[in-house]
């Protein structure tokens, strides 16, 4: 497992200077008809940090992820990732740029094996270069070997070795979530978007997830944006937290600062904790 954890994020342009944010969201706004899903949302994330995105249902968290992964267009504001303005980037280019994602309801290739799904993540991270691995050129053989090694390491990391050849459709939800995490990491992201990764997990699985997120940050050097309703996980794993309410960012700071913020207590924590 060592190699994959030491490899770090990779397949993007030159790394940003550590003093510069990896992600900068400025005045982001998006409407769906009369619904203002996001309004004037601004925050930034430094490389290798875990940032929680919290807020009540309908606050705009998933819409924010959809803007970052270019599923939704921005109506106002800008998103800069690794120095690039995302407005000119298509959804199909996001992975090669260094942003990978998991979904609230898990989005995998159900009729393919676990191994094949993770392998697909490698291809997405390679961008256009993956075609080389289909041919028996020297570069193609090198890419193929690199992909095989990476898939092995990620299957080990996410405890998927035993089900490597099982069809995803035949797996329970919790295991499918691990496949989705492994596939996202296979893309060698600089930024990993996790949409409610703890939903439906028991206490032990949650502890395991916590350990994984820390390893992803500390050993792979990948920044994480985490949408999560489990406040205990957010408080333990996040370096910073952004709170959304009705599409607006009402607070941001360390988990402790945010938890003590009266606006946040009123809007969110008061009801749940
Ligand atoms: N495609 C869409 N068309 C119309 N309205 C939408 C669309 N997507 C999101 N919305 C609306 O935008 C608002 C924000 O929704 P979003 O799903 O981003 O919230 P959320 O914070 O992720 O909620 P949850 O915690 O329940 O997942 C909601 O009012 C939602 O109904």
Automatic annotation (TrEMBL):
Q: Which domain of life is it from?
A: Bacteria
Naturally occurring in which organism (per UniProt): Hydrogenophaga intermedia
Alphabetical list of Pfam families matching this protein: ABC_tran, BCA_ABC_TP_C
Q: Which SMART domains match?
A: AAA
Question: Which GO molecular function annotations are given, in alphabetical order?
Answer: ATP binding; ATP hydrolysis activity
Alphabetically ordered keywords of this record? ATP-binding, Cell membrane, Membrane, Nucleotide-binding, Transport
- Tell me the ranges covered by the ABC transporter domain, including all copies: 23-271
Q: Which Gene3D superfamilies match?
A: P-loop containing nucleotide triphosphate hydrolases
Question: Which InterPro entries does this one have?
Answer: AAA+_ATPase (IPR003593), ABC_AA/LPS_Transport (IPR051120), ABC_transporter-like_ATP-bd (IPR003439), BCA_ABC_TP_C (IPR032823), P-loop_NTPase (IPR027417)
Protein's name in the database:
ABC transporter-like protein
- GO CC, alphabetical: plasma membrane
Looking up PANTHER family in the UniProt record yields:
CONSERVED COMPONENT OF ABC TRANSPORTER FOR NATURAL AMINO ACIDS-RELATED (PTHR45772)
């Amino acid at each position: 497992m060592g190699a994959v954890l030491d490899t770090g994020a990779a397949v993007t342009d030159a790394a940003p200077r550590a003093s510069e944010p990896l992600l900068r969201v400025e005045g982001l706004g998006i409407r769906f008809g009369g619904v203002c899903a996001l309004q004037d949302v601004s925050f930034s994330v430094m490389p290798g940090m875990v940032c929680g995105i919290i807020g009540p249902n309908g606050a705009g968290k998933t819409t924010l992820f959809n803007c970052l992964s270019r599923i939704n267009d921005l109506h106002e504001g800008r998103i800069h990732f690794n120095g690039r303005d995302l407005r000119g980037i298509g959804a199909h280019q996001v992975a090669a740029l260094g942003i990978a994602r998991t979904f609230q309801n898990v989005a995998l290739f159900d009729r393919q094996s676990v191994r094949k799904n993770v392998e697909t993540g490698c291809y997405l991270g390679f961008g256009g270069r993956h075609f080389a691995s289909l041919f028996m050129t020297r570069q193609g053989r090198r890419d193929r070997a690199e992909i095989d090694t990476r898939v092995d390491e990620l299957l080990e990391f996410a405890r998927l070795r035993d089900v490597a050849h099982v069809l995803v459709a035949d797996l329970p939800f919790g295991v499918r979530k691990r496949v989705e995490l492994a596939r996202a990491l296979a893309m060698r992201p600089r930024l990993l978007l996790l949409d409610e990764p703890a939903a439906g997990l028991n206490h032990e699985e949650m502890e395991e997830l916590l350990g994984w997120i820390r390893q992803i940050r500390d050993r792979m050097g990948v920044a994480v944006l985490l949408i999560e309703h489990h406040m205990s996980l957010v408080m333990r794993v996040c370096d910073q937290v952004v709170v959304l309410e009705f599409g607006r960012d009402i607070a941001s700071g360390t988990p402790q600062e945010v938890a003590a913020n009266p606006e946040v207590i009123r809007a969110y924590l008061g009801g749940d904790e």
